[in-house]
């Protein structure tokens, strides 16, 4: 029995992957993400670099054979910093998004499903998170918790779930009126069972495609926090590089090799997530599908 | 037919003066102007009972409250008044054990097989779901065996080809068979069938209806069969109740549909049925639209559309009363129409003690 079931699930997944590979946009997004994942997790193994080794070269040395992307204000190899920084950006992006997605989905589905006072309460909390200027909130939280990588993940996660919650609630409101939910009630299913087995599977595609977009925002948030000096000093990250480039006045002395590479990497990574999110949306959300 | 076991009530379902009212949400403007809250009286005092193994059809136009009645009996919608009893206990009681039993013994088949199956669940999960959540432990093999059995009973053979499909891979008729298999898997005592064939092709209808009748013959299942189709009600049921705007207008053996009905509303419905006769008969057709259930007319709720309306009708609301053997109608002049229809001598008004008046 289990085999036949797995086969059917496999068939469904295959259809999804095929649709993904048909669209050029998702292919480009996928290629960018694969490139950065390789850069982040295989790169450090191939390219030897120590974040705390100052003075490997001269200060702000332009690109040369020894340092392909030049050196920073402390004489560190910019290419090495870039490769080792990719991991931070990706980890923060994925984990913070995961936290944000879980909170948003739980809040949104319970809010939409139960309605009434629970809905009113949860939605006011959501509204509060939506209207609070997120940057100061993040700064305050980061300052309170201290600036370690994990704290930054948590801070970004708990400040970015409001949009997902709204989305999940809206979809839940429409799904819960459908007859299969009433059928589940008529056979004695409990609330948790209905939310988990009937509502979630029907809300999930929408949340999932949104999630990929949220991770782009999460990566930018990490960059912003690091740029403003709230990042984890012990771990290189692209935002941190921009922060040091700014402090060292790299722009005014024309040391383009210090700030252009991390900037381009951030833009590309965010673009990759955005492309993928957009094509997920198109595949999973039939209303948007081109005919 | 199975004997009534000891300790069991004679009626599996007893509905007494059941009311379901919905409050309409007021707009901001209404609140400002101080308008009163409006209530829709979807079900407004319905009384009937269902014997074990009996099929009772609830017939009415859309908006007559027949589906809401069915949902209230299964406690899927909160009642505003009256009582619905299942096996002698109120369906809205909160006893856990009783509720577990109730959800196993009473099932519902929905009208639209495109809406009532979760598109994300495989057929095997849909059909075995009642078993998986009934609180008893069943092992995988038993689940699968019973699912296959239920699917084959519902006419999906061989069941193996359907088990791992999704609803969108099946046709409407096949989906309704899946819904029926899921309703039958626990061998329920009572099924509310809400227009189970109205969305299906004529060729599939007969099969589905036969299945339901077969279930009654083997398991003595009782049905509340909700339909707007009089001829279908006549065909399948033992008794027929005709509803109009939340109330039962007439209830009796299925023969009332074939012509012995006394209520002008039932008469109008029967006359609206197409016939194969060559010469057109005299028809009492309905005029106008169903009034809004928010603002019911005074007196008899059918009076604005009735072709026999008299002054008394707009003053007093007629009660449902016995007019013949097991035959009840809510019309002031039921006896008169009864003698006209020639279906038998009118029974003078009698108390409920009269055995011929038992519902």
Please describe what this structure looks like.
The complex is a heterodimer of chains A (291) and B (359). With 291 residues, chain A is mainly α. Chain A has one domain (87-291): MetI-like (MetI-like fold, Orthogonal Bundle), CATH 1.10.3720.10. Chain A is built from twelve helices and no strands. Chain A starts with a helix and ends in a 7-residue tail after the last helix. Chain B starts with 10 loop residues before the first strand and ends in an 18-residue tail after the last helix. Residues 343-355 of chain B have low confidence and may be disordered. The chains are: A mainly alpha (291), B alpha/beta (359). Chains A and B meet through helix 1, helix 9 and helix 10 of A and helix 3, strand 6 and helix 4 of B.
Report a brief summary of the structure.
Chain A is built from twelve helices and no strands. Chain A has 291 residues and is an all-alpha fold.
Key words describing this protein structure:
heterodimer, A: 291 residues, mainly alpha, MetI-like fold, 12 helices, 75% helix, B: 359 residues, alpha/beta, Rossmann fold, 2 domains, eight-stranded mixed β-sheet, 12 strands, 31% helix, 21% strand
The separation of the N and C termini of chain B measures 19 Å
What's the total helix number of chain A?
Answer: 12
Based on secondary structure, the structural category of chain B is alpha/beta
3D shape of chain A: elongated
Sketch the topology of chain A as an H/E string, one letter per element.
HHHHHHHHHHHH
CATH homologous superfamily descriptor of chain A: MetI-like
Distance between the termini of chain A: 37 Å
Number of E strands of chain A: 0
**Percentage beta strand of chain B:** 15-25%
Gross CATH architecture of the largest domain in chain B: 3-Layer(aba) Sandwich
Fold topology:
The complex is a heterodimer of chains A (about 290) and B (about 350).
Chain A: H1 2-22, H2 24-41, H3 43-46, H4 78-114, H5 116-131, H6 134-145, H7 149-159, H8 162-175, H9 179-186, H10 191-227, H11 238-247, H12 256-284
Helix pairs in contact in A: 2-4, 2-12, 4-5, 4-7, 4-8, 4-10, 4-12, 5-8, 6-7, 7-10, 8-10, 10-11, 10-12, 11-12
Chain B: E1 11-23, H1 28-33, E2 39-51, E3 55-59, H2 66-73, E4 81-86, E5 89-90, H3 96-105, E6 106-109, H4 123-132, H5 140-153, H6 160-163, H7 172-184, E7 190-194, H8 202-219, E8 222-227, H9 230-236, E9 239-244, E10 247-253, H10 264-271, H11 311-315, E11 321-324, E12 327-329, H12 334-341
Parallel strand pairs in B: 3-8, 3-9, 6-7, 7-8
Antiparallel strand pairs in B: 1-2, 1-4, 4-5, 9-10, 10-12, 11-12
Helix pairs in contact in B: 4-5, 4-7, 5-7, 7-8
